[in-house]
Design a protein that fits this description.
221 residues; alpha+beta; Bacterial polysaccharide co-polymerase-like; 56% helix
């Protein structure tokens, strides 16, 4: 079957493509509304050396991974619970928290996901404050030239909807529906390609011209 025939089939049955797209987009919308809403609060820490030394900066980049592990530790989680009097376990807090070092910018980002936007913000802010306090105490014992300054860049952001991303899901569902509808039509055309319906199909399969055909006899009543 020629490409032109497939294209004609897509245009002729475009309503099927649109119908499938509407169905998948609607299903994605319903799916998103059935999900539990998760809010995310984020906060960033600046990590900077006490002196502008290239070697110390490279050392700090390695330390940032260790710092990230310290933030997401059971000790830090317990300190957050105690300070904010949260009705959560240590494992609950750790499960909500994601800590990512951004070495190129000397930043550590803390993300907290929770069904309560206010609690997400509280946990993120407290995690940053606890770590900054601990590091500053530790740095008092270090030589001034080797100290690392860690401070909060901005306060934790208010909890924003992180999941579900309804708009993105609907768009993805619609795009998937367009492709699925097109595949259905192409599949049907491919299956029907060997079916002989008229003289043109006979010529295409046999490679010979049709010189005549027997007309259909309709009985008169």
């Amino acid at each position: 079957m020629e490409l032109k025939s497939y294209l004609n089939a897509l245009v002729k049955r475009s309503w099927i493509i649109l119908l499938v797209a509407v169905i998948t987009a609607s299903s994605a919308f319903v799916f998103s509304k059935m999900q539990t809403v998760i809010y995310r609060s984020s906060i960033q820490l600046n990590v900077w050396p006490g002196r502008p030394d290239w070697g110390l900066q490279q050392t700090i980049k390695g330390l940032m991974r260790n710092y990230s592990g310290q933030i997401k530790s059971r000790n830090t989680a317990q300190a957050i619970i105690d300070r904010q009097h949260l009705d959560l376990t240590v494992d609950d807090v750790l499960e909500k928290m994601t800590v990512s070092p951004i070495e190129s910018d000397f930043l550590i980002q803390i993300d907290v996901d929770d069904i309560d936007p206010q609690r997400a913000q509280v946990i993120a802010q407290t995690a940053a404050e606890v770590f900054v306090e601990n590091i500053r105490v530790y740095m008092l014992e270090q030589d001034k030239r080797d100290r690392v300054d860690v401070f909060i860049r901005d306060d934790a952001t208010p909890g924003r909807v992180f999941w579900p991303k309804t708009g993105l899901l609907v768009i993805a569902g619609g795009v998937f529906g367009l492709f699925a509808g097109a595949l259905v039509i192409l599949g049907l055309e491919w299956l029907a390609a060997d079916i002989i319906r008229d003289s043109r199909d006979v010529e295409r399969h046999a490679g010979l011209p049709v010189l005549g055909s027997i007309p259909k006899i309709v009985k008169s009543q």
